[in-house]
Design a protein that fits this description.
Layout lengths: L2 H16 L10 H31 L5 H28 L8 H7 L12 H28 L3 H25 L4
Helix pairs in contact: 2-3, 2-4, 2-5, 3-6, 5-6
Family: Belongs to the Dps family.
GO molecular function, one term: oxidoreductase activity, acting on metal ions
Protein name: DNA starvation/stationary phase protection protein Dps
Length: 179
């Protein structure tokens, strides 16, 4: 493929990503555009988190392997459900969900997950950092979407926040020493 064709594809992708499609949703177009941008940011982070959960799940080694391995399966399922909800919400608002690996890599604000770790404890520490980062951004977005007048997106993100906080609690409980 020539670079001209690649550039045309990238230009077309960028236009589709920022263009709003018609909808009878009564939120003002400017509000919808801002919420779509916020939701695409969270979508990238949630997809990133879903992928690193599997990275850890596949590569765990050591004590507590089976318990953590199985726990992460449940975490992944929960995050996948939220990915779908966030993507569908931004499309309901007339936006385009940016969920390809390339778009996620470009748009996530989470730190790169270490690919060279294997110990259960190391994965739990890295996952705790990722969950904390995603949770912080989701809580900020709850406020942003609420201030923009989109109670539905704010409510949806509140559910995401509860899941992230719950999963973080489980991860941190594995890392804490009993008294």
């Amino acid at each position: 493929m020539s670079s001209a064709n690649t550039r045309n594809i990238k230009d077309a992708n960028q236009k589709a990503a920022t263009r709003l499609y018609p909808t009878r949703n009564d939120l003002p177009e400017e509000t919808r555009a801002k919420v779509v941008a916020v939701m695409n940011e969270r979508l990238a982070e949630l997809i990133d988190l879903a992928l690193v959960i599997k990275q850890a799940h596949w590569n765990l080694k050591g004590p507590q392997f089976i318990a953590v391995h199985e726990m992460l399966d449940g975490f992944r399922s929960g995050i996948d459900a939220h990915v779908d909800e966030v993507a569908e919400r931004l499309v309901q608002l007339g936006g385009t969900a940016l969920g390809t690996v390339q778009q996620v890599s470009k748009n996530t604000s989470l730190e790169t997950y270490p690919a060279d770790i294997h110990r259960v404890e190391d994965h739990l520490k890295a996952l705790a950092d990722h969950y904390a980062g995603a949770g912080k951004r989701v809580r900020k977005s709850i406020d942003q979407t609420d201030e923009l007048g989109d109670a539905d997106s704010s409510d949806l993100l509140t559910g995401v926040s509860r899941t992230l906080d719950s999963n973080l609690w489980f991860i941190e409980a594995h890392l804490q020493e009993s008294a």
